[in-house]
Amino acid sequence: MDTLTWLTYVGVIFALIIFPGPVALLCTSHGLKFGRKHTTATVLGGALSSLVLMMVSSLGLGAILAASENAFYILKLVGGAYLIYLGIAAWRDSSGIDIQSPSAAGNQRIPMKTLFRRGFMVGISNPKDLLFFAALFPNFIDVSQPQLVQFVILAVTWLVIDFTLMSTYAGLGSSISRWFQSPRRYKRFNRATGGLFIAAGGTLMASNH
């Protein structure tokens, strides 16, 4: 893989990852509720989901899914339903946060493995990501060169950028936690977050492509 191709890839994925989506929203929300340290588990869960999608796409399954309307439709329904479920849970959450120690109460209630699982499920529940990876890799892999090495380079690059940007979102959530010492503000944040998840899930289930 030549340097120009790699730099082009970096620019493309940076623009795609930094644009706020469900995983970024989840990382910000978890950063506010549980602190940046514990939200690392959420970030890692999302990163693992990206790696799984890359591997699936490299095996050609992404193209198969794209060609199967029934499989794609079912995956959209499952992914959309999970986002709506998260939205309802966020909307109904009235636990509040401990301002003196923003992550203390949440950390006791929710293990890091649960945050990891949520990050993974949100990341892997969107079939459009799978189609994106299926369409992305053929444009950046030179079939005349060893493909495994190129895949590793692309995957590591994605993971580094994804982890960095999602950690930034988590840090943003953690840094504004004190602003939500008001129960009313915290409730509004949860409802805004829940509404966005519900909207994203509904849009995914209703989309035709």
TrEMBL record:
Its main location: membrane. Pfam families: LysE. Keywords: Cell membrane, Membrane, Transmembrane, Transmembrane helix. It is a multi-pass membrane protein. InterPro entries: LeuE-type (IPR001123). It is found in: Cell membrane. It comes from the Bacteria. The chain crosses the membrane at residues 6-28, 40-65, 71-91, 119-141, 147-169, 189-207. Belongs to the Rht family. This is LysE family transporter. It comes from Halomonas citrativorans. The lineage of its organism: Bacteria, Pseudomonadati, Pseudomonadota, Gammaproteobacteria, Oceanospirillales.
